[in-house]
Structure formats: structure tokens, C-alpha cells
Protein 1
Amino acid sequence: MKNSTIISKFFLAILCAWSLTFPNSKVSAQEKQNALISVQFNKVNAQNFLKISAKYKDGKKFVPASDLEVKIYKIVSEDSTALLGNLKLAKDGNGLFDVSNAISKNQDDISFNVIHEASDKFEEAATEVRLKFANLTAELNLDDKTAPVIIATLKDINNMPLADVELKVRLQRTFAPLTIGDDTYFTDENGTINVPITVKMPGLDGKLNYEVVLDENETYGTIKTIIESNIGTKITDLSTFDQRTMWGTPLKAPLVALIVPNLLIFGIWLTLFFLIFNLYRISKQKKS
């Protein structure tokens, strides 16, 4: 009798502990995450946009804050903001928001506020970006007899040159831009860099697009200017990617695609033939 009482008390204690810990585990499973939002201003030719990304810590690593919804505000004054719109980030936690209409002509600087209001998964998060405007112009000089030269000039909104600023010159390619010359160039006292193109690259119909980039500058953000040219080695596009070639004649097929499958088929049928022939011989020997 005493043992049964001890056993019942033991199970009652386990049941009480389970009832106390189960709600806590449920709450912990529903704890909201703290999202880290970063904003980078980008200017490509005449288009201005914010590159917004968000992530949160899951265990020991950071993962993208997928489908995070944010609101973008333009800071008008210290106590006044104007809502520009909403943006839902993609699965990789990144998104682009066009702010070209929010920028006035000859405006020296601007500030934006990106806010995520508290949701089922994330706590409230916000970040602010302040930047000054600059103009980056670039042209291709073909007068040099040695090699074509890219001349790029960086100036502020008041047309004053920005010296000792790091710029990059790259050639646009299919998968990733190709660096031209040195990794970086610094502007001189006139805000200018001169980059000769010493290597002639192939391009479809000789067309090549070069880009001069002020990359993730703390003051001016990212500014990119694209130069279109036809100084490349002409190549012809022989790809049939956009054409219906499934019903092409066998004459267009490579020899490997014709020989290898036929050899495999012939080998399989030959193996089956020998198996059937050997089974026939075995059955014939048993009858005899």
C-alpha cells in the first residue's frame, strides 16, 4: 500500500512538472526575432533606388529575413516624415525601392527611414540612411592612338570636384563584371581618373558596356555610370537557345549524341539475347 502511494505521488509530480513546462516551451517557440535591416543608396545613370536587406540570427548564424515587410519614409525635417511606400523583401531578404521621385533637382542631401512594424515573427525594427548627392560622368576617348581611354569625373552637387575618392572600372559580362586595369583608382584634384583599355575583349557585334562605379561609399552611397561602346572584337551569336530546335534533323546532332546511345541500346539487347539463349540451353539439357 505504501509503495502504491509513493508511485502515485511520483507520477503526479511528473504531471505537474509537464504542465508547468509545456506552456513555457510553447511561448519560447513563438518568440519574435530581432531583424537587422541595412539600407544602401544606389544611383545608376538617372535612376535612384534604395537597396534594402534584412537578416536575423538563427542559432549561431544569420539567415535572410524572408518576406519581411517594410515602410520607407523620407525625412522632411527633425519631426516630420513622408511615407513613400511599402516593400516586401524577397526570399533572400533583399529588395529594391525606387526613390527617384522623392529627390528634387539640385538637392544637396537626403535622409530616409526604413521601418518594419512588429509582426507575428519579427520585433519592430528600423534604420536610417543619410547621404549626400554626387554626379559621376564618364566617357570613352578614342583619340588616343595607343588605346581607348575611359575618362571619369566625380563632382558634388555644386560642381566641385571630389578628390582622392575610390572608383572602380569594370566591363559588364554575362555572369559577373570583369575588372579593367587595377582593382581601384583614386580621383585626382580635378575629381578625374583616366583608365586605358589595353586588352581588346570580344563582344556580340563588337558591342561592349563598361561601367565606372563608386562602390558603397559612406557619404554618397553607390553610384554607377555605364558607357556603351563598339570597340570589341566582333563575334556572331550562333546560339539556338531562343529557337525551337527539338525537331531538328539528325544531321545537326553531334556524333557523340548519335553513337553513345545506340551503343548502349545495342549492348542491353545483346545482354538480354545471351540470357534468353542460355536459359533455352539449360531447359533443353534438363529435358534430355
Protein 2
Amino acid sequence: MILQGLSLLAAVLVGGFLQIAFVFLPVVLGVCILWLVATGTAGISWAWIGFVWYVVGSFLDGLRAHRGEFGSTRLNPEHPHRRYDRLVLLYAGTVPIIMGLWLVGSPARWAIWGAIYFSLSAAVDTVLRDWFDRIPRGILRWMQKRVRNPQMEAEVGICLDCIHVQPAIPSRPGRRIRCLLSATDPGFPEYPPTPVHDCDGFVQPAEHS
């Protein structure tokens, strides 16, 4: 359970924005190397190998997402960022189950939790995907309403409502957003100077709902 949680955390960290990925991937892999140095061959296990494989795969998916291979996060349910959102929600929802099983004292508690978690993890990428996707989208809309104000609209411009936009990391005055269209079309700057008042690539989410 703990390793699964760490795997998800590492995937979110190294599979997010490119700048974050390049910071956290060496940290995560460095900790894994220190673990092997401290434990020797006794530290090698299928769980550990799976952890490293998952982290590296998340990093590669993050690079591909940065290059635009998955398209817009809002339009592509297969986008790795949306998949991480679903798995984190699932993990947070099933952790209370293992706590209840622990109190019951069942010797099969780990197997029960594992069966529930991994069965649902397959379902959230298939039959339950649309239902799970509504949760992070609802949270995002709630957060956008809280941070949206006249000052933010004046600083960013129309990009605030475009499906092709991510926050710039790091953000600074005049560079608030990253345009995803830049990955496939050199006519769009990756970090357009803000505020943006007119853009040929501007698309509102409502046009694809």
C-alpha cells in the first residue's frame, strides 16, 4: 500500500510539467540508488523494479505530453495527466478500506485491499472513466472560480478561457501561461507574452462539449 502510494506520488511529480519532471526524476532515482547501496541485492524486488519502471515511464509520458503527442488535456481522456488524476482519486478513496480491514484484524487485509484497488484501477480507465473524470474537472472549475478575478483576466487575457493553455512554471509577470499549440505549430510561441487579446488558435471548452 505504501509503495503504491509512493509510486503515484512519484508519477505525479515526474510526469507533470517538464520543469518539474527534470527536478524530481533525478531525486527519485537518486533515492532508489541510495536504497540499493544501503541494502545491497536484498533491496531488489519485483515491487522495487515495478516502482522504477513506473517512474521512468511517467517521465517519458511527460516528455511526450510536453511535445504535444497526446493533444489537449481537456479533450483527450487518455492524456497521462488525466490518468494520474483518476488514479490519485482512486487511491485516496480506497485507503480508508485498508484502515478498516486493519482494525478488523483480517490476515488477508492486504490481499483484499489490493484486489479492490487494482480491479477498480482497471475500471477507471475503461467503464468508470467518464464518471471519475467529472471529479477533477469539477474541482478545477471550483478552483478557477476562486482565483478568477479582474486582475487575473487583465494579466492573462483570452488565454484564461482557452483549452490549449497550461500555467507557466515558473510563472512570472508577462509569462503566465504555456500554449500547447506550440508543440505542433511553430507559429504559436510556447510562452506567449501576456496579456493576449487576440489569437487564431483560441478555442473555448464549450465548443467541444
